[in-house]
Amino acid sequence: MNAPFRADGHGHVDRDITLSFTFDGTAYTGHRGDTLASALLASGVHHVADSIKYRRPRGILTAGVEEPNALVQIEAPFPEPMLTSTTVELYEGLVARGLSGQGRLSSEPDSARYDTVHAHCDVLVVGAGPAGLAATLTAARSGARVILVDELPLPGGSLLGSQERLDGAPSAAWVSDVVAELDTLPDVRVLRRTTAFGHYDDGLVLALEKRTDHLGAAAPEHVSRQRIWRIRAQQVVFATGAYERPVAFDDNDRPGIMLAGSARTYLNRFGVLPGRRAVVFTTNDSAYPAALELADAGVRIAAVVDAREEVPAHWRAACDERGIDVRAGHVVTGTSGIERVSRAHVAAFGQGRPGERQGIDCDLLLVSGGWNPAVALFSQARGALRYDAAIGAFVPAQALACVRTAGAAGGNFTLAGCLADGADAAARALSALGRTGGPVALPATDPLPDAAPGRVLWRVPSPRDGADGSHQFVDLQRDALVSDVLRATGAGLRSVEHVKRYTTIGTAHDQGRTSGVMTSGIIAEALGVDVADMGTMRLRPPAVPVPFAAFAGRNRGELFDPVRVTSLHPWHVEHGALFEDVGQWKRPWYYPRAGETMDEAVLRECRAARTGVALMDGSTLGKINVQGPDAGVLLDRLYTNMMSTLKVGRVRYGVMCGVDGMAIDDGTVIRVAEQEYLLTTTTGNAARILEWMEEWLQTEWPDLRVHLTSVTEHWATIPLVGPRSRDVLALVAPELDVDNEAFPFMSWRDTPVAGIPARVCRISFSGELAYEVNVPAWDAITVWKALIAAGDSFGITPYGTETMHVLRAEKAYPIIGQDTDGTVTPQDLGMSWVVSKKKPDFVGKRSFAREENQRGDRKQLVGLLPADERTLLPEGAQIIATSDIPAPPVPMLGHVTSSYRSDALQRTFALALVRSGTQRIGETLYVPLDGQTVAVTVTEPVLFDKEGARRDG
Amino acid sequence: MRPIDNAPDAHEDVLPDHPDFLWRNPDPKPSYDVVIVGGGGHGLATAYYLAKNHGITNIAVLEKGWLAGGNMARNTTIIRSNYLWDESSGIYEHSLKLWETLEEDLDYPILFSQRGVLNLAHSLQDVRDSKRRVYANQLNGIDAEWLEPEEVAKVCPIVNTSQDVRYPVHGATYQPRAGIAKHDYVAWGFARRADEYGIDLIQDCEVTGLDIRGGRIHGVRTTRGDIAAGKVALAAAGHTSVLASMAGLRLPLQSHPLQALVSELLEPVHPTVVMSNAVHVYVSQAHKGELVMGAGIDSYNGYGQRGAFHILERQMAAALELFPVFARAHMLRTWAGIVDVTPDASPIVGATPVEGLYLNCGWGTGGFKATPGVGWCYAHTIATGEPHPYNAPFTLSRFTSGALVDEHGAAGVAH
Amino acid sequence: MQLIACPWCGQREETEFHYGGQAHIAYPEDPYALDDEQWAQYVFFRDNPKGPFAERWVHSAGCRRWFNALRDTVTHEFLAVYTGATPPSTTSTAPAAPQRKGQEASR
């Protein structure tokens, strides 16, 4: 297809490169540098999609991110919903369709990469238009570190869309000079195709860089598709420009109706004529250059309809020169057309009421209701806005200490003003940083007469009887009408935010860029209040829609959260272990042999530990080294039991409670030396407990001379368990006297194991004779393999966390976090023995005296034996008193915390927290399952080796 | 060109219209029987049930901004009752039952959609905690089920139930009666009914002081003048501490930012509500087609109604772990509410040491779903001076006795 | 994301820190002299002001040290960062000058 609306001699697109694309099933071509919208317009396509509610044809209203209408669904090369065709850079092979409402997500995985980069600078300038370039140049020449971000592929911003000249030459010359100079400065970074979308605390500006979107299927796979820049800026200059505002009139939504400035952009940036015969409807001067430039490029301007009574003489003269009919004091009251506007209805606009209407044929209706500064980012920075009645827009009230606007973003709409304002904003930013920048010579602009004031006009009263505003669109994307706004105020709504929710205005992708201020104006008119008091809709981050995947960046899959593995991990993988996630750790869960079920594997592992010898990787236990003269004092205050009396060479089990008296962690403590302890925490709590200890030490007892260090990663820990563990240890630790008297329970020895210096503790989490071999993580595999080799003849068996859980449950050793839930005290766990009676105080003790803690019917840890010894109670099952299940709510006595099949007991068993549990030993209670109940006998929690005979082998 | 007055039947992605009249905008009267401070969902529901259930209509609801513009406008509208403890499931289930008839009761299209809620489990301990909650729910008469991963995939096919991901889905609890509603519609439904009862809804009216004499409340001072009141009921969520301090009360509350976001409108992909506490994301697809998502709370105290960017980054990463299909959905808007969090993640509803001053706060991230239930119970408490059985456990004194209702320890899913 | 001036390390991203709630809540001299209500005040009740708030942070992914900050809970502005027992009477927005390592956090 050729492009009948391409204007020769205009635009920055590369006409040597032709790109083929498909829209709504039809093939078209465009050029490198086009957007999808400009390519469509060049081909004469205005109707992009039908509207969401009324299914009316809709076209292209704007040339940028403010587009409310022309949404597309990308279908190829990869589906992406809801992009504005005005911001999609054209690429070869693009397939898109117009979107009415809901977009479509691909069910195929997105294989594109996304990433995130940090950047820091003295001055960040957002926007590479005249103000932004002047600001950047000023800041950059001072030697400051400067970042300039701009959403377009080319620098220049609004200059790309106008024919205004600088220093008597096309502005592109100045722009390229500036950019060339910036490129030579080492501390200046210019980011193109990069849209700042968020301003967060302390100068954090987020920007999205589209790195390969414009390459389509040719995008290299190794380059991230999009990148989020996290820019920390000391000073920020938002030179974000302004968005043109439409005026509401009847049937103001037809394709072919476009904002005047956007039409100018299509001509000057893209070399596209958006129509052949245009009517221009304006309330201000800014539409005149559009009309004149389009006229000069061959568009017949049928009329300029100016709502003002007076048209500035120079604009009238310029129009006269070209034979353009200028109708002052007139408005467009409505339009006709089928798929596209074919006629504008024009009427004199006297005392706020339109007079007799007259039709003017056209295929393009350009509208300008004035300009709204782009203040979304400034607002996000908590910059206050004020209503400027002269321009009918909200502008920054004043600069913040670190954030300012420049140019049109601050309500400065002339080119000379924007340039000067940009330079000034940068100078102020530099001054705030204590820097001085020399004055920068700004280019001369074309001499222009002073701008005449515009007329603030939100809508043209509808000439239709009894249908006031019911054909006047405010939010084109949401199909919301002036009548909807009036219905909202009639319903009693007085707040812009209420009207927004009532009408859904401003809730689409564009956040009401072209409709928000108009809405405030219409509400204010309806209620007879000042727009300034009305305020405007809150603009929320992100300022432009950002793909979820860009936010996620590289934090996907394996990188979503760090995977922590022990130094023995490869061995576990090699030997077929299945893994359990515990916090960030991968822990071996069990080691199934070929054809084994989990139950079979776990029973086998348990049997090995109880009858022979078994070993596991316990390296994930948190380990905290505590050193200093007051180490014992600190531990006495944090553990429920006494640690200062622990002798060097001995080990003690301990429990920590929160201030509320609830158990938060447990583990062993060994006294390494007079002033040194090493304690272990549960795997998932290691970091939390270190922080907890530091908090008390630093903020409550800074007088204590203690230092804490995590040594979790330094030590590999290998529990060696079972009646034959002593035999195995003796083989690999020849220097160690393993005799029970020489190396008694709850003591530790430093000794070489398999030739590696090791610390061996005689502790047991299974009730069996057991050792815990601690070696530097680097040497763990050597020691592990040596233990396996030495234990080979005893049938040594590696076991995982599941077997560990079974073994400990048979002995009623609780798992904090499984058998407790933050509401359980050590006493509830039957561990009053671990709560010191001697110590005057420790963290949590005072709470034991509270009313609730004194109740006789607290929930306590007990054992449960199902009547049928094959019945495995589900963990989490609730316990009731009766064999019949009464109608809900059923009184519940507690729940099953742990439940296993036991090889040692040759039956199933469970641990449970049961109300008044210790008084119910011997009672029969019931566990409802699938509408039935299972009878269970309440027992002492310890079910195996109650006398502890196995501990010493 | 299709004429507007001959529009096709409302599309599924177009919401029902609001009524032509919502409420008057009265000036405050000098005196009311009850002044409710806070015109959010809870305050409006309380006013409504005071009138409907107790015949008290000489009420003002004072709102410092615009009605339902606080957390009511900022939450992710999840409604469920599958809480662990009897106390919690009691009041939330009461609320859910009210939700089930609320549309007729209010004669307002609140778009209550019982599409079910999945709470995912990502670790063996999650599985234990989840099943514990399911068993407890069932005995409390709440529809709760445990689903294995393949059943999760049936309920919500877009959840990634592959076991080959960083934190695989081990299963989920499922409450079929749970769902979502449209928050503005709910709030406005209550507001319109309250207005019909003659209750004064007074906006732009910030309470600046409490008139307390002799241990009793006599009224409030506001930016629109002093207002006398027989009883004053606080329903101000994140701002409760500020108000309570005017009465000299210090509460076990901390106010935090909580962020949420929406995507563009999308063709239906997500039939239910999915919550994952372990990876901190919860998401549904609202009526028009937008994905509505919430994150974990920002850690620090904050009244600024904005949170930090890294929370959103984390949330998106988590969302894509669970829903790879969302990769090219776009984040359209984010916002933050101010949630008032108690030490046990359960609310405080009841009397205060000041006679005639009542407290409803501490709903943290879960207040929306409680809206009708707490309105009902709080109204009962205010009208009778005695707590309703459903809010009786949620006293301030539980922090002294230690009888907490600890909903984060075991269930961990407070949203 | 706030930029927080750790007294020892200087300005770092918020993600490196953990929040510690209200500052200057001393562990009671004698918990057993308190009645349950007074004890509950210590355990569960904290100020929650809208505006300047003396609070604690720990540079958990950095030097692991606790410090205090006076921060505005509305603007998130750090009014002061300090290690002493009371907030400095400054309302300056400048972060406290980094102190030498080795100086004790005094609370």
Oligomer: heterotrimer
* Protein structure class of chain A: alpha+beta
Helix percentage range of chain A: 10-25%
Low-confidence runs of chain A:
none
Total beta strands of chain B: 18
N-to-C terminal Cα separation of chain B, in Å?
46 Å
Total of domains of chain A: 6
Largest interface: A-B, 103 and 95 residues
GO molecular function (chain A): nucleotide binding; sarcosine oxidase activity
Catalytic activity (chain A): sarcosine + (6S)-5,6,7,8-tetrahydrofolate + O2 = (6R)-5,10-methylene-5,6,7,8-tetrahydrofolate + glycine + H2O2
Family (chain A): Belongs to the GcvT family.
Subcellular location (chain A): Cytoplasm
What can you see in these coordinates?
- The complex is a heterotrimer of chains A (953), B (415) and C (107).
- The model of chain A has no long low-confidence stretch (mean pLDDT 96).
- Chain A has 953 residues and is α+β, with helices and mostly antiparallel strands.
- Chain A is elongated.
- The longest helix of chain A has 18 residues, at 415-432.
- In chain A, helix 15 (598-611) crosses helix 20.
- Chain A folds into 6 domains: 14-107 and 246-368, FAD/NAD(P)-binding domain (3-Layer(bba) Sandwich), CATH 3.50.50; 111-244 and 370-444, FAD/NAD(P)-binding domain (3-Layer(bba) Sandwich); 457-529, Orthogonal Bundle (Arc Repressor Mutant, subunit A); 569-619 and 715-807, 2-Layer Sandwich (Gyrase A, domain 2); 622-710, Aminomethyltransferase beta-barrel domains (Alpha-Beta Plaits, 2-Layer Sandwich); 855-953, Elongation Factor Tu (Ef-tu), domain 3, CATH 2.40.30.110.
- Chain B is globular.
- In chain B, strand 1 (31-37), helix 1 (41-54) and strand 2 (59-62) form a beta-alpha-beta unit.
- In chain B, strands 1, 2, 8, 9, 10, 11, 17 and 18 form an 8-stranded mixed beta sheet that branches.
- The model of chain B is unreliable at 6-11 and 410-415 (pLDDT under 50).
- Chain B is α/β, with parallel strands linked by helices and 415 residues long.
- Chain C is mainly beta and 107 residues long.
- Chain C has one domain (3-82): Folate-binding superfamily (Folate-binding fold, 2-Layer Sandwich).
- Chain C has one helix spanning 36-44; strands spanning 3-6, 10-13, 18-22, 52-58, 66-72, 78-82.
- In chain C, the strands form 2 sheets. Chain C has a 4-stranded antiparallel beta sheet, with no helix packed on it. In chain C, strands 1-2 form a two-stranded antiparallel ribbon.
- Chain C is globular and about 40 Å long.
- Residues 91-107 of chain C have low confidence and may be disordered.
- The chains are: A alpha+beta (953), B alpha/beta (415), C mainly beta (107).
- Chains A and C meet through helix 17 of A and helix 1 of C.
- Chain A: This is Sarcosine oxidase subunit alpha.
- Chain A: Residues 471-553 form the SoxA A3 domain.
